[in-house]
Specification:
Jelly Rolls; seven-stranded antiparallel sheet; five-stranded antiparallel sheet; 15 strands; about 45% strand
Length: about 190
């Protein structure tokens, strides 16, 4: 029997919506951020994602995948550590808060802290984007965030298994612009 892998976590932080952003139709540029080789992507709207947060880019030719951001909030520029390859992104390319490790994994839940309780009835959702096709996509979690400042969904004693092509998309409108820290737990199986 194989021993269980340790839990890994993705960190998501910022001050606005977790819903998908789109990239603008702009050429990707090579850059250096604090001594780290990076690429500069441009979002279609101000993104408010904090440096150190993880984002998943989808639809590009060269930059799809989960990346740790290198720069902070209130900008349309998004810097990620990556080897530069010339490309012009498209408005259909997205930036999401997604757990997509690219290998079979167990989802162990999340832990969330807001700067203050939300004052709007809006659902935080987690949706399976199934690698088997859209007919299998399903919402696995929903919670009205009105009045909530701290939230935890712990599945580590009974984790949910997923295939290597499966992705979990996290979304919340956050119209009250609460600063959030979201930790998402997963491990390879």
């Amino acid at each position: 029997m194989n021993p269980k892998q340790p839990w890994s976590k993705l960190l998501f932080t910022g001050t606005r919506s977790w819903n998908s952003l789109t990239l603008s139709a702009t050429a990707v540029a090579e850059s250096w951020i604090k001594g780290v080789k990076a690429v500069k992507l441009t979002t279609a709207a101000t993104h408010y994602i904090t440096a150190g947060s993880h984002v998943t880019i989808d639809g590009t030719v060269n930059y799809d995948g989960t990346h740790k951001t290198l720069t902070g909030t209130a900008t349309t520029l998004l810097y990620i550590p990556s080897r530069f390859v010339a490309e012009t992104t498209a408005t259909a390319d997205t930036v999401k808060f997604t757990l997509a490790p690219g290998h079979p994994f167990e989802y162990g839940g999340f832990r969330l802290k807001l700067s203050a309780a939300s004052a709007t009835a809006e659902d935080l959702t987690i949706t399976l984007d199934s690698g088997a096709g859209a007919v299998y996509d399903t919402q696995i979690y929903a919670r009205d965030m009105n009045g909530i400042q701290y939230l935890q969904w712990n599945l580590q004693d009974n984790p949910m298994p997923f295939d290597r092509l499966d992705e979990l998309d996290f979304a919340w409108a956050n119209t009250n612009t609460k600063t959030y820290g979201l930790e998402v737990f997963y491990r390879r199986i």
